[in-house]
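My hope is that you will study the record closing this message with an eye to the fold:
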Amino acid sequence: MLQTDLSLNYLYKPAHKNIKKPVLMLLLHGYGSNEADLFSFADQLPDNFFIISVRAPRSLPYGGFAWYDINFMDAQKFNNVEQAQQSISLIRQFIAECIDNHDLNPDQVWLTGFSQGAILSYALTLQQQQNIKRVICLSGYPSPDIIGDKLQGEYIDLQFFISHGVEDTVIPIDWARQADQWLNQLKIPHVYKEYRSGHGIVPQNFYDMLDWIEQVK
């Protein structure tokens, strides 16, 4: 059932009842999708997570939502950076609300983003890590115009899992490969994987992600 008690609407799956102060796993969907998309695999994630899948604030035609507008006709102004920064602020506020309202671990947050959600996950974490410790970026890329020159510089106990399809026609594979270079330069531990797929999550991608979660949780 869609929850409307916080600043953004969301779906959630609580952690196992015996776990006190569970870890927040925040799911950020892509452009034109909604909170139900990534939430579809919530039951397959470890039960120590309190899983929240949040709806982006901007409504699109046919029932979809977005974190910021995309100008498909102008490569120089592809992303609406101002809206992206507004969404980053909204997500930070929402994370704090989730921790307070659901009595979650205030020192450890996981992000899982797909496409536009992954782009914001990069920016959100690299600009100011705060309590974010693990980040899963699926079919996205680190956008220099959104991240800007706000890099934190030094990151503590931070790890990334990154995956992308080599046949992705929405976000080219070369854009995704920039993440490997960025994180190497920032000395952030990460796993980077490519798959013979398009703009989506194939089974092997999902299984590799689950294996990584088990290794670093």
The first strand starts at residue 10 and ends at 13.
